[in-house]
Structures are given as structure tokens and as C-alpha cells.
């Protein structure tokens, strides 16, 4: 929706989406509808499987069920809106709707970063201190860690969303993205965004760098412990336990770092769109497959 005056306050934004070609929209609608359906079925199935199968009532699978819940929520922030955009000509979103979408995006994204780090620590305790595993990773501690994850997510979400929307928006209202992401929204601000970009980079790094550090240190100790194992079968089992988590880590953190932890996150918008589709829509679908296909306990519970 075009603005009639250059200095009027923006009340609605226009999301350009992924494409403006009608034929391609129909194809993309079918693809993303299938992906979203698989995401919901796969993650809900994983949660139900972990809840109903007693062999999976361990800290590792409790954290995995929380990850599945986060993936459902994260995907639901973006995909329904994207599917609607393929079917309608009205691509606008209200100012408040944009704020809410960004807030939930940051909340669930931050939560997933922290949860993946907690899951790496869980594998560290399980492999490096197996006799103390159930003592250290108690149910009480797991619940506390999940609560802290959401609390930090809410805090980071409030800071980042407030940072973006505290700026004045009085001119262009076209967002070159399929959702209200921080970098393209900052491009529409009427004032200088240097400070806002520094805050974005700082808090993005504040979440990703410590969590990645925990993951790297945990897996460094895990690798040393595995190499010291005398039994090849024990080594194989340990590697198999970690393989699915390492795959999920690589997919998620790789795309997030490339989008947000860069000197000028406002640039390369087309490139960022592709990466954003990957970590917001595709990865939530892949996680249940990664954790089930590479995990004997899950496959046994399914059978």
C-alpha cells in the first residue's frame, strides 16, 4: 500500500515475498504446503512418540521433544502467512502484525540456539561422565534449563524488536522479504540505522557466539573421550549418538550465522531470503527426519 505523503507514519508494510510470477506462486504454494504439513506431522509425531514410549523418557529425548515444539512454533510464524501470499494479491501486513511476527521469530530462534547448546552439553555429560549422567541431567535441571531458554528468548526478543521498531518509519513501506525480518525492516527507517545495526550484530553475536562456544567445547571433550575408548563398538555407538545432533547443529547455525552475524546484514537481501527459507521453514521439517533416521532408539520406538 503506497503512502500518500513522504512524511506520513507507516501503518502497514508490504511484503514482496519470494516471487511475483503467478505460475511460480502456484508451484511454490504446493511445495511449501507439503513442507509445512510434513513439519507438523513429523514434529507432533516425535513429541507423541517421546511422550508415549518409556525407553525415550530420558533427558536427551525430553530436550528433543522441546526442540520439536520450537520447530512447530517457529515454522508456524512464517509458513501460513507465506502460503496466503501465494493465493492473494494483498501482500500487506499491519504495523502491529509485523512487530508480533518479528518478536515471535526472535523468541523461537533464540530458544533454538540455546536449546541446541543445552543438547550438546547433555551429550557431553552422557559420554564423558556416564555414571553421573542421570544425577547431573536430572528432570528438575532439564525443566529449569528450558524455562531459562524461554526467559532469555523473551528478553532478546524484546531488545531486538524494540531496537528495530523504535526507529521512525515515515517513507517507504515495502519490505523485500517474505516476513518481517530485522535487516530489511531497518532499511525502511527514516533515521540513521548505524546504531541499530550495531545493536543487532551485538545481540545476535551474544546469542550465537556463547552457544557455539559451549557446543564446540562440549564436542571437543566428547571427541577426546571417544578417541580414548578401547572398544570400537563403544566408539561407533558414541559417534552414532552424536551424529544426528551434529547434523542439526550444522544446518541451523550455518544459515543463521550467514544471515545475521555479518558486518552489513542489510546487504545481499536475495541471498538472505534463500537462507531464511532454509532455517525458518526447511530445517523444522528436517529435524525429525535427522533425529529419527540416525537414531536406533527412535527407530525401535516407532517399530
Q: Pairing-aware structural class of the strands and helices?
A: mainly alpha
Strand content: under 5%
Give me the CATH architecture, please: Up-down Bundle
What is CATH's topology name?
Rhopdopsin 7-helix transmembrane proteins
SSE topology string: EHHEHHHEHHHHH
For this structure, what is the CATH class? Mainly Alpha
**Please, what is the average pLDDT?**
86
Straight-line distance between termini: 53 Å
Q: C-alpha Rg, in Å?
A: 21 Å
- Tell me the count of domains: 1
The spatial strand order of the largest sheet comes to 2-1-3
Number of strands: 3
Structure, described:
The chain crosses the membrane at residues 27-49, 61-79, 99-121, 141-159, 198-226, 238-262, 274-293. Keywords: Cell membrane, G-protein coupled receptor, Membrane, Olfaction, Receptor, Sensory transduction, Transducer, Transmembrane, Transmembrane helix. It holds the Pfam family 7tm_4. The chain is 75% helix and 3% strand. It contains ten helices and three strands. It has helices at residues 22-52, 59-87, 95-128, 133-136, 139-165, 182-186, 194-228, 232-260, 269-293, 296-302; strands at residues 12-15, 92-94, 174-175. A three-stranded mixed beta sheet has the order 2-1-3.
Q: What keyword list fits this structure?
A:
303 residues; mainly alpha; Rhopdopsin 7-helix transmembrane proteins; three-stranded mixed sheet; 10 helices; 75% helix; disordered N terminus
Amino acid at each position: 500500500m503506497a503512502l500518500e505523503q513522504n512524511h506520513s507514519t507507516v501503518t502497514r508494510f508490504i511484503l514482496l515475498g519470494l516471487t511475483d510470477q503467478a505460475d511460480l506462486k502456484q508451484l511454490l504454494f504446493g511445495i511449501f504446503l507439503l513442507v509445512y504439513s510434513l513439519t507438523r506431522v513429523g514434529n507432533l509425531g516425535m513429541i507423541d512418540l517421546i511422550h508415549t514410549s518409556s525407553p525415550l523418557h530420558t533427558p536427551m529425548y525430553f530436550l528433543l521433544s522441546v526442540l520439536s515444539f520450537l520447530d512447530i512454533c517457529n515454522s508456524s510464524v512464517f509458513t501460513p502467512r507465506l502460503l496466503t501470499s501465494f493465493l492473494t494479491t494483498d501482500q500487506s501486513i499491519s504495523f502491529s502484525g509485523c512487530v508480533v511476527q518479528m518478536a515471535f521469530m526472535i523468541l523461537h530462534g533464540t530458544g533454538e540456539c540455546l536449546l541446541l547448546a543445552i543438547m550438546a552439553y547433555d551429550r557431553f555429560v552422557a559420554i564423558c561422565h556416564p555414571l553421573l549422567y542421570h544425577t547431573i541431567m536430572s528432570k528438575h535441571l532439564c525443566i529449569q534449563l528450558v524455562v531459562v531458554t524461554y526467559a532469555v528468548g523473551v528478553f532478546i526478543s524484546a531488545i531486538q524488536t524494540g531496537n528495530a521498531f523504535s526507529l521512525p518509519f515515515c517513507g517507504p513501506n515495502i519490505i523485500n522479504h517474505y516476513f518481517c525480518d530485522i535487516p530489511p525492516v531497518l532499511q525502511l527507517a527514516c533515521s540513521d540505522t548505524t546504531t541499530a545495526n550495531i545493536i543487532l550484530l551485538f545481540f545476535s553475536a551474544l546469542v550465537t557466539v556463547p552457544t557455539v562456544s559451549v557446543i564446540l567445547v562440549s564436542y571437543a571433550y566428547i571427541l577426546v573421550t571417544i578417541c580414548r575408548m578401547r572398544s570400537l563398538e563403544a566408539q561407533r555407538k558414541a559417534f552414532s549418538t552424536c551424529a544426528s545432533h551434529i547434523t542439526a547443529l550444522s544446518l541451523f547455525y550455518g544459515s543463521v550465522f550467514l544471515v545475521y552475524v555479518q558486518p552489513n546484514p542489510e546487504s545481499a537481501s536475495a541471498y538472505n531470503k534463500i537462507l531464511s527459507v532454509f532455517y525458518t521453514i526447511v530445517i523444522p521439517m528436517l529435524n525429525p527426519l535427522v533425529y529419527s533416521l540416525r537414531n536406533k532408539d527412535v527407530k525401535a520406538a516407532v517399530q
